[in-house]
Design a protein that fits this description.
Elements: E1 6-12, H1 19-32, E2 36-41, H2 44-47, H3 56-62, H4 68-73, H5 79-92, E3 95-100, H6 103-109, E4 117-119, H7 127-134, E5 140-143, H8 149-164, H9 172-180, H10 182-191, E6 192-197, H11 212-220, E7 224-228, H12 234-241, E8 246-250, H13 268-285, H14 296-303, E9 306-309, E10 324-327, H15 338-341
Parallel strand pairs: 1-2, 1-8, 2-3, 4-5, 5-6, 6-7, 7-8
Antiparallel strand pairs: 9-10
Helix pairs in contact: 1-5, 1-13, 7-8, 8-9, 8-10, 9-10, 12-13
Length: 358
């Protein structure tokens, strides 16, 4: 039996550095029925250099130039803020998650009992972060935006090594060996979920290629979910229908707020609608066994047909095909057996449209 889709409401940095907004985002995610609300934890100076430029979407969405460093400094939450957010999540009955973007942030988040450590798409090639995350030996959700299958395989090699060895790696060959080993594969199966992702904000539907989920599942034999940066709800819903086991979707209190990610985020009512839609799709996916369900069973007698007399038939007449028709209700002999009746002798009189008896 399939587990329910794990729905992550991605608050990210849509709190704009405000603890009050962060707590409001927790409330919105909890009210929507999401399984977890996820933030982003970083120290700006540990993540980017002063020379790192903003991405085009960040410039477009913030309507300002400047460096990533200046932007990210304004979007940090302090350790004390994290404690209050975590406590509020517990109070509201929703799981807390956050993505760590540096080693100190990862160490701070590790003991907080999150359902999984999230590896962001940008760190798929950051072997030190992958290794540190793997050595926590907690469930890992690995996002794969901007990646090829080769990129993902290398990342999984690092993770496999970290899950199975406490030694210092000497070269990529150690990662490749861990990935190919029985122990490494077993560890990946136990700990890792992959997320298909397109790193554009917002991502055009034409760039999504949900069939990639199938390719990833076949290539790596791991559970695959989807981190959705498109506008609207339908792509996440379609991903669930294709078998996504995790859905991650950005949300905000108001798309008009300043900041890099608000424009590509759902507003509170949309997030509620997304969660409800995903749960309905899960119900609709149901069982792979094709058989009548629920009210279908009594409806068969209503909607199907039975063999009836196409004209009055006298007892003793030899039944010919022109004497028989097929009409509702379906409570008599099925029309599949029409030809077994031809040539038999009528055992009584039949009026027009009367159901033929066996």
């Amino acid at each position: 039996m399939h587990k329910p889709v794990f729905i992550i409401a991605e608050a990210g940095v849509n709190h704009n550095g405000s603890l009050d907004l962060a707590l409001q985002l927790v409330d919105v995610a909890a009210d929507a029925g999401a399984d977890a609300v996820k933030f982003q934890t970083f120290k700006a100076e540990a993540l980017v250099t002063a020379q790192a430029a903003k991405a085009d979407y960040q410039v477009n969405n913030t309507k300002e130039e400047g460096s990533q460093l200046d932007m990210l400094r304004r979007l940090e939450l302090s350790p004390a803020d994290h404690e209050q957010v975590l406590a509020h999540c517990s109070k509201r009955g929703i799981r807390f998650m956050s993505t760590a973007f540096d080693a100190d942030s990862l160490a701070m988040l590790a003991p907080l009992g999150m359902p999984a450590i999230k590896i962001p798409s940008g760190d798929i090639t950051c072997a030190p972060m992958l290794l540190a995350a793997a050595r926590l030996r907690q469930p890992l959700i690995v996002s794969t935006g901007m990646s090829t299958l080769a990129d993902i395989e290398y990342a999984l090699g690092v993770i496999a090594f970290g899950l199975t060895s406490n030694e210092a790696p000497r070269s990529r060959r150690d990662f490749e060996a861990a990935y190919c080993s029985d122990g490494g594969r077993a560890a990946l199966d136990e700990f890792v979920t992959l997320l298909h992702c397109v790193t554009e904000y917002p991502a055009p539907a034409a760039s999504v290629n949900l069939r990639t989920m199938d390719t990833m599942a076949a290539a790596f034999g791991l559970p695959v979910g989807y981190s959705d940066h498109t506008l609207g709800l339908e792509v996440s819903i379609a991903a669930v229908a294709r078998g996504a086991c995790v859905i991650e979707k950005h949300f905000t209190l108001d798309r008009a707020l300043p900041g890099p990610d608000h424009l590509a985020s759902l507003e509170p009512g949309e997030l509620r609608q997304l969660v409800a839609s995903i749960r309905n799709v899960e119900l609709a996916l149901g069982s792979p066994i094709k058989q009548p369900r629920g009210q279908e069973v009594p409806n068969r007698a209503i909607a199907r047909r039975s063999v009836v007399a196409a004209r009055p038939i006298a007892m003793g007449e030899i039944i010919r095909d022109d004497m028989l028709g097929a009409k509702r209700p379906g409570s008599g002999i099925t029309p599949l057996d029409t030809w077994e009746l031809i040539g038999r002798t009528a055992n009584r009189d039949y009026a027009l449209d009367e159901l033929i008896e066996p």
